[in-house]
Amino acid sequence: MSLRLKIGLDSTFYAVLFLLLSNLAKATERPNVVLILADDLGFTDISPFGSEISTPNIAKLAAEGLSFTNYHTAANCAPARAMLLTGVDSHRNGVPNIPEAIPPEQMEFGHYQGVLGQNVVTLASLLQANGYHTYMTGKWHLGHTPDLLPFARGFDRTIAMADTGADNWEQRTYLPIYDQAHWYADGNEHTLPDDFYSSEYFIDKTIEFIASNESDDEPFFAYIPFQAVHMPVQAPKEFSDKYKGVYDAGWTVMRERRHSAAEEAGVVPEGTKKLVTPGTLEWENLSEEQKQHHARRMEVYAGMVDAMDTHIGRLMNYLQSIGEYENTIFIFTSDNGAEGSPLISPTAQSPLDPWFETVGYETGIETLGERGSWVAIGPSNATVAASPLAYYKFHANEGGLRVPLVMSGPGITQRGQLTDEFVFVTDLAPTILGLLDVGNHDGSWKGEAVEEIIGNDFSSFLAGVNHAIHSEDEPIGYELGGNSALFKGDYKIVINKFEQNETEWHLYNIKTDPGETNDLINDEPQLFGEMLSDYEAWAEENNVLPMPEGYLRGRAIFRGGFN
After folding, report:
1. Which one of the listed residues 77, 133, 259, 395 is annotated catalytic?
2. Burial level of 290, CB count in 10 A (0-12/13-18/19+)?
């Protein structure tokens, strides 16, 4: 054999070997995870679920993956976040309610502090221990003290807002219950830049954190809990103005449009019935000034969702540019349903008006959503965000608990598909671990006993294995602030003792009747009895405390700072 031929053969051999090794390395490369959590985003607030709001980047993720139309979370922020990050029930992880709303009678108990207990392990801690870089940018709301901030709970780099919410344009509080907005970076107090806008800043910092470790080839977990669209609803004017006139017809018309679009998209079953949430105003009874103000509030809300999606797109483009997009699992969801608190009024009758005047917040239509303004969409507009579901945030109805869930990336074989398989918020942490082939802690962490993860790992379902995520006889209990539910198969029992002052339970088939219009309690007495017994057993097992007589959520939230 000639030397030239031998060299040629050797070169070919090594080229093929290099290609094989490169492909093997790519095949065994551990995927990254981007977990995106919107705040107070309603069930049909993204375009794949029937919204008129432009969300092309979330739509791209939906087209590349699987969307869950029967995903349930808690009805307010902190309990949802605690369950999402631990896979542990909120009555065991220390966060059965937001701390601002827990009555003094319950605060006497250790598991009712409203901050993430040391008896649970976060998803970030598990991934950090397995070689992942871990980043968090956004709203935390699981504790203020150094041992409770995300920097101490498994995250390498953090930008964290520790309160229920804050202004999106500058470093100022949004409610009189706080003396200041509490921002932290890597565990230390943080000052925001002058050009701050929350959605933009969170993505800027996420990209910065990822770039800082780009050269070491280790995977990352990025948790991005946006402030959008929590009140105060604020957006750059160019985003809000894109929706001028869209909401002028009022919430009755917009609810129907969302309902029809959701049916057409397959997000709810064809022929789904809906109820108008009690207390919703009659659009035609409003003055022209009131109609214009309510419509502009929704334009700003749509602008804020649109801006969030735009900045999510910037992160997607960045990951494309560094060759990591295809190796990244994306998860997009919301912490709870749309916010329906009536805290501002176009007729200057808001309970916050005296405070707005003191601190200089504007609520007039001229600058709504811009720097220095304060706006929330209110309960009637919230029925659009939740359509065709009933009620919204804080309520145990579907409008408070059912939100969109979109997943795409490695390990998720379905593309552009929808599923109505029931999923609960505690299922996400074990599923992420399953997708990454990272072991569960099984109730022991660093030599100490901790709460076990109770959620179901549905990573095999994402890989195309056709099976139920939860069996038909598996009960899943829920309670928050006296409002309770239990899910079992396609069915749900629910009672809202507060906000609605209900004294009787209801039974619905939420797969065929997501609008909760057909109460089956008299038709299925045996099933109701079984589910009620299941709820009572769950409540006892998880030490669910009763709400004190005369409790009012709003009064509890504002105690100590506002009357």
Report:
1. 77
2. middle
Question: Does residue 492 fall inside a structural domain?
Answer: no
Catalytic residue among 111, 141, 294, 506: 141
Cβ-proximal residues to 43 (8 Å cutoff; 6+ apart), any chain: 49, 337, 338, 385, 386, 387, 389, 398, 399, 402, 403, 404
Q: Is 144 a catalytic residue?
A: no
What is the count of structural domains for the chain? 1
pLDDT digits (tens, 9 = 90+) for 112-125: 999 999 999 999 99
Domain span including residue 218: 30-471
- In terms of Cβ atoms closer than 10 Å to its own Cβ (0-12, 13-18, 19+), residue 1 is exposed
pLDDT tens sequence across 414-460? 999 999 999 999 999 999 999 999 999 999 999 999 999 999 999 99
SS3 288: helix
The residues near 317 (Cβ < 8 Å, ≥ 6 apart) are none
Statement: residue 549 has pLDDT above 90: no
Domain assignment present for 241: yes
Backbone angles phi and psi of 26, in degrees to 5: -65, -40
In a domain, 192, yes or no: yes
- When the pLDDT of each residue in the chain is averaged and rounded to a whole number, the result is 93
Q: Write the CATH number for 466.
A: 3.40.720.10
Is 190 annotated as catalytic?
no
The verdict on residue 198 lying in a domain is yes
